[in-house]
Amino acid sequence: MKIAFVGIGNPLLTDDAIGIIAAERLCEMNHGTFGCSLIKHSDDMLSLLNELTEFDFAFIVDSFRHDESVGEVFEINLDEGKLPRFVSPHTLSFTNSLSLYKASNYKLPKIILCGISVKDALTFNDKLTQEVENKLPEIMESLNKFFQKKLRSEG
Questions:
Q1: Which of 62, 71, 115, 130 has the smallest set of CB atoms within 10 Å of its CB?
Q2: 47-86 confidence digits (pLDDT tens)
Q3: Nearest-angstrom CA–CA distance, 46 and 90
Q4: What is the pLDDT of residue 47?
Q5: DSSP labels for 6-37?
């Protein structure tokens, strides 16, 4: 099974980098068990979906703003049709891009989309906020358990 860990974000916008950081760490944590690939993405969603066509499973991590629950990990249900407004501005929304790909009959992997609640993803800074940095071990533990559970249920 070909697995992609995808981190979405901008490493120069404070907490927006959390998707990339988390995907890197997940790939490191699971590389010995699975043949996984890391994709760092800060471009448009159509180009990401095009890149994912060679994989069987894609675990995508992005940030979103939610002050009351900084550091929490949420699964975003792609079937609901409504995604929370992610922090990263992308040229075409993920759901619109996904709809285009499905309509064109391109092969896509099983996609799991996770959001990490952040404090600040608009300030230019190459460091996470202290609140997110402090919760990074909990975030990674939660993401890894979630990934393992999803993979077991798919396989």
A1: 130
A2: 888 888 899 999 999 888 766 788 888 887 766 544 444 4
A3: 10
A4: 80
A5: EEES-TTBGGGGHHHHHHHHHHHHHTTTS-EE
Q: Encode burial over 32-52: b for 16+ CB neighbours within 10 A, e otherwise.
A: eeeebbbbbbbeebbebbebb
Task: Give the span between the Cα atoms of 50 and 30, in whole angstroms.
Answer: 24
* Alpha-carbon dihedral sign for residues 63, 117, 22, 76: negative
What's the rounded Cα separation, in Å, for the pair 62 and 151?
19
Distance separating alpha carbons of residues 118 and 95, to the nearest angstrom: 21
Walk me through the domains of the chain, giving residue ranges and CATH numbers: 3-154 (3.40.50.1450)
Name all contacts of 81-89 with Cβ < 8 Å and 24+ positions apart: 83/113, 84/115, 86/8, 86/62, 86/115, 87/9, 87/13, 87/15, 87/16, 87/62, 87/63, 87/118, 87/121, 87/122, 88/8, 88/9, 88/10, 88/16, 88/19, 88/42, 88/62, 88/63, 88/121
Instruction: Return mean pLDDT, the chain.
Output: 82
Chain position carrying tokens 């991590």? 61
